[in-house]
Amino acid sequence: MTLTQLRYFCTVCHTESVTLAAQKLNISQPSLSGALRNLEREFGVQLFRRRHRRLILTEEGVRFLELAEHLLSESDRAYRKMAELSREETPLKLGVPPMIGSLVLPRLYRAFTESPPAFLPEIVEDDKRGLVSLLEEGRIDMAFLPHDREWEAPFRSILFSTQQNVCCVARGHPLARRKNIGIHEIGEEGLVMFKNSFFQTERILERFSREGKKPNVLLYTAQLSTVQNMITAGAAVGFVFEFLAASTPDAVGIPLLPPMTTDISLVWKQDRPLTENMRDLIRFAKENRDLSR
Fold first, then answer.
1. Residue 267 and residue 156 in contact, taking contact as beta carbons nearer than 8 Å
2. What is the pTM of this model?
3. Contact assessment for residue 29 and residue 15, using Cβ atoms and an 8 Å cutoff
4. Contact criterion met (CB below 8 Å) for 267 and 143
């Protein structure tokens, strides 16, 4: 007797039909019928009798249903308890690059503190390259990462958001009224950039190179606040995701021409066993994703 057989048996009892139960369980009808026969053979009793295309429990079947439901209830209770212990003993380590953190973390903390499961991951900040290395080494469990091509083995992923990259300037800057802008039009504008190992910076510098232009970079930094402050003070021009430009007071985001978008996905190693916390984070990513672009 297995828990799977018990679940099959209880589903047939509640639907009074092997056909309906098989559909609900998403298994084949012969597989379900075989599981029921194996139970009857194991205990040497008849659990059902057929009446007008319905399956009716025998007296033995009624007693077995009570036992089966009790066992399944205890199994579920044990699973929930062990899941709680797992959350307490093995906090999830989540990698997030700084700019992506400002998109993901407010939603994540709001979702996980307002309703169960109320666990908070341990956050590790780094650029994409550093976080991929930490994933490969097993030093973090999952990461929200930017990318411009599909993730392949040894990783699995769920697309969480697609963001437009914009040129961000102070509201009073001469470029602020532009509807879009090409890299070649930025000219000698002083730039503040995330450090050059960051995925977004690599893509921006690659576009400068393709257009034969040398960027006038005043400062490379890993600090999001430094980028924002340099831009809003009118000291430099920067490149950020559209959501960040829209939420930065006294700043304007100008779409690039041709457009540049970045996908952001929740990523983990496919051979890493999923803990309950990891499953919760996967559910969060699916339920909160923003793929409007």
1. yes
2. 0.66
3. no
4. yes
